[in-house]
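ASSEMBLY PREDICTION REQUEST
Request ID: AP-0331
Submitted by: J.K., bench scientist
Number of chains: two
Total residues: 1255
Priority: normal
Notes: Please return the full assembly, not individual chains.
Input sequences:
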Amino acid sequence: MRNRVRFLLGSELIVVTNPDPTVTVLQYLRTVARRTGTKEGCAEGDCGACTVVVGELTGDSVRYRAINSCIVFLATLDGKQLLTVEDLRCTDGSLHAVQQAMVETHGSQCGFCTPGFVMSLWALSANNGEATRSVIEEALAGNLCRCTGYDSIIEAATTVLARPRTEETHNPQAVHSALTDLTKDGPLEIDVDGRRFLAPRDLKELHGFQELYPNAVLVAGATDVGLWVTKQHHVLETVIYLGNIAELRVIESSNDALTIGACVPLTDAVPELVVHFPQLGPFFQRFASTQIRNSGTLGGNIANASPIGDSMPPLLVLNATLTVRRGSVTRDIPLDEFFLDYQKTALGEKEIIETIKVPIRRDVRLGVYKISKRKEQDISTVCGAFGVVVEGDEIVKARVAFGGMSATPARAPKCELALLGQPWTMDTVRKAADALEQDFTPISDMRGSAEYRRLVARNLVEKFYREINGQSVDVFAQVGSSDD
Amino acid sequence: MTETRIKGGVRQRIPHESATKHVSGEALYTDDLPVIEGQVFAAIGMSEKPHARIVELDLCEVHESPGVVAVISAHDVPGYNAMGPVVRDDEIFASERVQYVGQSLFAVAADTVEHARVAARKARAVYEELEPVFTVDDAMERGSFVLPPHTMKRGDAPAAIANAPNCLKGRIRTGGQDHFYLEGQVAIAVPGEDGDMWVHSSTQHPSEVQEAVAEVLGKTAKDITVEVRRMGGAFGGKEVQATPIACVAALLADNCQRPVNLRLDRDDDMVLTGKRHAFRIDYEVGFDDDGLILGVQFDLAARCGISADLSGAIVDRAMFHSDNCYYLENVTINSYRCKTNTVSDTAFRGFGGPQGMLGIETVIEDIAASLGIDPLDVRSKNFYGTDEKNITPYGMEVTDNVLHDLIPALERSSDYRARRRAVEKFNYENDLFKKGLSLTPVKFGISFTVSHLNQAGALVSIYKDGTVHLNHGGTEMGQGLFTKIAQIVAEEFQIDVGEIKVTATATDKVPNTSATAASSGTDLNGKAAEAAAKTIKARLVDFAADHFGVPQDEVLFENNSVSVGPTGLPFKELVGLAYHARVPLSSTGFYATPQIYYDRETASGKPFYYFAYGAAVSEVIVDTLTGENKVLRVDVLHDAGKSINPAIDIGQVKGGFVQGMGWLTTEELVWDNGGRLLTHAPSTYKIPTAADVPADFNVELLDTGGNKQDVIYRSKAVGEPPLMLANSVFFAIRDAVAATCKTRVQLSMDTPATAERVLLSIEKLAKEVAL
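STATUS: Completed
Returned structure:
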């Protein structure tokens, strides 16, 4: 049994024996390592002040990604490298190019959010991000700044990405071999007075743990479970971390289907989906933030069964199927039969989602629209997804699904019925919009009133119609008026 | 070649003094300070009811919770259990009655933050519920006020409105705003000998923290020292709201005689600290056929929460800015400070000014719509004159009006007229999207309107090696105050700014300070620091003239050197000589703003030393199916006088603009029917992100030749005024909404203009037209 968490902090090997199973990376950094450059702004993964970069072995290289350290458990760092703002200065003590650019463009005012921005920009630069506005905006969507108005930070990003990349202080080969050494041992098993953190490496080990601890909380990206700990102060008895299970991280693509492992981070799952369904591109840009997508997984988003999880409306429309597993037994559940009630799913005891299978149909015309108070890093007030197959003038297939309109993400059967077999016209669309009234009775909450939800859901049907008919319907893609 | 100019003097665009430390994570904020031996961590237990008598507060389980070291509530306060900047009506711990959900009931200290927070949830309170008042409407109906109503008037508004060829009535409700400083409220209290208390507090107002801590502990000011090196943002949210946090930390530290760190969790911070006042503004206006305002009346009703806090002065400032840039010959402004069972609203960048301006700008827009003329033309028609029509409703002469240069310049640089036509054409050709364009001006009064607060002190010391220690009463919250003050002292001594260290603001270095607020930080503390430096410099001149036997006017400080008649020597050498000659090398400095006075009885006087001006043009696009919208382009021309550091000032303009834009668009505070704030974290409360900032964002500082008043280096205050430039975003959205309707109707739209409010406004318009 291995009860020591081992990771590189910068280039130093850190070994922590039996840490608290749910101590966060941020808590560790600030109170144990006393690296106070990383800040707590919200402790829920929404402000980015705690952004750090995690290096992970992928094949022959180390892949670097920005994450929110406030909601990630320390033990998930086992076998990885953690970089904080303190690791960036060059060996001669001078500032890293990213830091220097932020100074030059006056990119900090109060400075509290700055280390987080620096780490997001460092990760962007390490991943050879392009110096374009949209790439920068996406990389910074998870970092809030209340002082600068962002303009100077965007300028810093543009400046540094346009320059040739400077050499990093840590030696990539040394990091690679150090991390390789760390991954050779058995699964991590932490036990602190009966509170456990278990990190199986394959499905067999997972099953073994599940047999021992049938009530264990399964954690993938911890983008929700992390908040149970930091905000609700839940004491989790046994946590099983799924992030190291190789079988859950596969991506397979065939002619007629795309299969994504449940623990594939959204950052990796999204491009696969977008390759096959380019219409999802702009939508997924608005899905959480870079840091959250780097931690959060597609399977986690589904298993969490939140009525406002953004992956589900499009997956419902695409007729996705889940393969779920208990031990050696698997079964398939169509996604539209998976959600039973508010945060209740068809998963049985000790059953896990293994993969998400998405049929690839090239004849489906697809539209997905997210409505939220803010464009970036917000939770949907309403999310509407539409797919139709039109032959000649007739709608021969129609699937419509919504998030934010009921207790679970759900299809809109009456609306679908109103489309099916009808001509592809505005009149049909209006009737389909009317039919939504029978499909949903939305609630009012802090994200929007029932009245707004009803109205905007109706209007999204029309938006879809306009888009399929060739109109540009994304307000965020529009440009300003010139005087000529 | 040698530099002929010092590094970092005034007018130079040097980086923030902590920039390198910010980007490297080396800048220390209060919670980053080394943990002191024995330090414990605290949390606050909060009320669950909006208005109730406390029948019983059972803290047994809190005491027994793991790691708990101390638990205190109202009866454990050795001194006075209340605070408040004007009226002492905010209890540290609710004693008999709770008045809002989240009000502090007790506090607990434990060995870890986690233990303290868990323990704080274990209290059992028995309440007898009382009827709450939540909204301005309810409060107005019941006459529930924290302070008496107040009126400002000139001429005869009712008669002017009655006799005017045209008149309109309207209402706008403006939403509140959470400060969302990235660093939450935090204080560390460390007990010392004699029962003294040393407090590290993330506060804009160390002296108020000092006084309040003394009062709650039953001690005196001399026993308490408060220090703050920097804050991670404040925006007015740490002017008063930092005080109770420091008081609780000090009370616990006193109780258990251990250092106590109280850092609020973000959600707790948003629930239990005050916010920007929401207003209901009703107006009635009479105007001629060209849009000239003949008479106007405003009723301003502000939601103030449970206590007076700074609401008196905040609503006064809303009244002072109900004219904005416009001459109002006949005007009545009635104001009401409504008491509601919500957290006490407080200072926030603009301090009532933004709400006051939204009132008059709504009037302007409604007049323009009713006459079918461009709102800019209505604005221009009503601007204050230079030699006439230049008296404000409170009787102050506007002597520094730059609108007649500023507005035409911005109109040109933004291509306003051509773009107006382009927007009209776009709207004619498109039905899914509508564009809107708006130019709004800002005139913002600079000074605390409570005159005695306009004073500041500084302490400057030169050490034997010629380096300088600089301390002043202002606090650094990111606005670049320490940088600018260092530049001022560098300029005075003619030494590189790197020779100067600005140290943490501390009540034992400079006493009796005012809050760093009202945009006044540089104006007040800059002059005080300059005065201190001048005193020492005069002594050095005296000494050098005497020592080298030259006339005083031949002793000149220039570029790290001092020329003395035909010869010269490095500044450092002169300092060394002066030390040996027993010349005092340290001095305090003091400044009090001249000329200002205000008689609140008659609502007249000269409350402001001067005005800061600016204007912005914003263009937006609105999705008529969803209400979602995007700011496409912004042009700003802002008057910062002769800027001490243009890079810092432009940062203030851009940052203030975006913060104002958030207030008016996506930042929405939502309470449930029981008075619980639902938007208490960034997951639900949405401040702007990088993607909300227009890619086409042009900000220029207006070159006016400098402030007409003798403000430090002829600069102008720049902290608050730019926030109100974002009014242009709101009115551009309103313009786009109006464009969905082909006929002219008066549009009523409240703030924030969320996607929901925009879409529902469009729907409402469509229904009104259909009728």
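REVIEWER COMMENTS: The longest strand of chain A covers residues 382-391.
SIGN-OFF: pending second reviewer
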